[in-house]
Every structure is written in structure tokens, then in C-alpha cells.
Design brief:
It is a single chain. The chain is an alpha/beta fold and 248 residues long. The two termini are 19 Å apart. The relative contact order is 0.14.
Length: 248
């Protein structure tokens, strides 16, 4: 199957870059992580896998990410979750399997709650719901919090490249989209993959997600030496097998 590309006009001055493989349902939708995009190893592996079996697949970049327009610093969890819902509403039909990496796991949960009748299954890869609160704000020292409140942005060193701009808007908006505050009304199968050597998101968070979702069909796969990205060939094979198992 051939992959087509395009841009989705959000009507607010931004356009989302997307790539789609036509095929049978359910459509596999890849949701990238924070400051990541649709060209990573996990997304491209899934695109090739779906193309090879005639499965529909959609990947896209949130506003301010990758090839989409907009400034990263203007983004929030709510805005990126709205991008995801807009993309699946405009570019897919029928049932979906959401595959979310890191922040994409949070976006996947928000999307699944927003469109419950369309979700056939959800896969999280080092899923990081509520990370703006748990892993950012709660981890900041008082001087960092004061600087963020005063300046509206805090630049945090990143092992993946340039310092990460954390905005006050990101933290405040994230607080209004927390999902692990009670039962998560999700009744589809849930599969969570997490590396126990992940330096960014603790693997215990996968266990908490399993406890919170309402579905009884929830499983965690822990990869003892796996890092946050889970993009090694062996990790990608675990992801491929997980999605294949859900597709049947």
C-alpha cells in the first residue's frame, strides 16, 4: 500500500502534517511524544508494518512539532489533544487502535475518553499521563517554580538536544487535563510497554494506569533493560507483536 501525505488546516492559523496508509479497519493511529514527531523509528516501523498487511494507519505531527506549523512554546496538552481528535475525525473512519509514545500515551487516553465508541484498543509506550504535574511541576525546586511563575518559561536541560522550554501555560493547562485522578472510563483492551531502565518516566506509572482504567483487559509488558524511547530492534519487535496481537 502507498502512503499519502498532506496537511490538515486547523482553522486557527496552524496546519498539521500527516501521513496515511489506506487499508482495512481498525486504523492504527500513532501519537508521538513531547517534542517528538511522526518520523521516528516506532512510527515508521508501524507504517511499514501496516502497509505490508493492508492495514489502515495514520501518523501526524502536533502543532509546533515536526513538519506541522506553529510554535512549540505555544502548545499545551489540551491543544495537542485537540489536534489528535481533529486529525482522527478528519482523516479516519471506523474503529481505531491508538498507539501513544510517552506524552502520546496521555494524548491517547484523552482521545479515547473523547471518542470512546471509536476506540478498539490502546497501546502505550513509556506512557506518561499527567507528566506536567508529576514529573515537571512536582519535581521543581522552589526557585525553579518561582522563575517559571515570574518569567512564564523555564529552560530545562535535555539529554536529547537543546534545552526544553517548559511554559507556565503548559503546566497550568496540564493540571486541567489530568487523567489519573480517579477511574479512567476506558473499556477497550489496553497494552502498556515500559522499560525498567527508563530515566524519564518511572515504569511504576504503567502499573498505576492499569489500576485506574476500567477495562479488565489491561496488560503491562516490562522490558528490564529498556530505556525511554524503546526504539531498539528488539523493542520495535515487541511493539509490532503487540499491535499484531490486537489486530488478530
Amino acid at each position: 500500500m502507498t502512503e499519502t501525505t498532506g496537511r490538515l488546516d486547523r482553522g486557527n492559523g496552524t496546519e498539521l502534517a500527516w501521513a496515511r496508509v489506506e487499508g482495512r479497519e481498525p486504523t492504527v493511529v500513532f501519537l508521538p511524544g513531547f517534542r517528538s514527531d511522526m518520523t521516528g523509528d516506532k512510527a515508521t516501523m508501524l507504517a511499514a508494518f501496516c502497509a505490508g498487511r493492508g492495514q489502515a494507519m495514520l501518523r501526524f505531527d502536533y502543532s509546533g512539532h515536526g513538519a506541522s506549523s506553529g510554535a512549540f512554546e505555544d502548545g499545551t496538552i489540551g491543544a495537542w489533544a485537540a489536534d489528535a481528535v481533529a486529525a482522527i475525525d478528519a482523516l479516519t473512519a471506523g474503529k481505531l487502535i491508538l498507539v501513544g509514545s510517552s506524552m502520546g500515551g496521555w494524548i491517547a487516553l484523552l482521545t479515547a475518553v473523547a471518542r470512546p465508541d471509536r476506540i478498539a484498543a490502546l497501546v502505550g509506550i513509556a506512557a506518561a499521563p499527567d507528566f506536567t504535574q508529576r514529573l515537571m511541576w512536582d519535581a521543581m525546586a522552589p526557585p525553579e517554580r518561582a522563575k517559571l511563575q515570574r518569567d512564564g518559561v523555564l529552560y530545562v536541560p535535555s539529554q536529547y538536544g537543546e534545552p526544553t522550554p517548559i511554559t507556565r501555560a503548559l503546566i497550568e493547562d496540564g493540571a486541567s487535563h489530568l487523567v489519573l485522578t480517579g477511574r479512567v472510563p476506558l473499556r477497550c483492551p489496553v497494552r502498556l510497554l515500559h522499560g525498567q531502565a527508563d530515566p524519564d518516566v518511572p515504569w511504576e506509572l504503567a502499573l498505576e494506569i492499569v489500576r485506574q482504567v476500567e477495562t479488565p483487559d489491561a496488560r503491562v509488558t516490562l522490558i528490564k533493560d529498556g530505556d525511554h524511547r524503546l526504539s531498539r530492534p528488539a523493542d520495535l519487535e515487541v511493539l509490532r507483536q503487540t499491535v499484531a496481537g490486537l489486530l488478530g
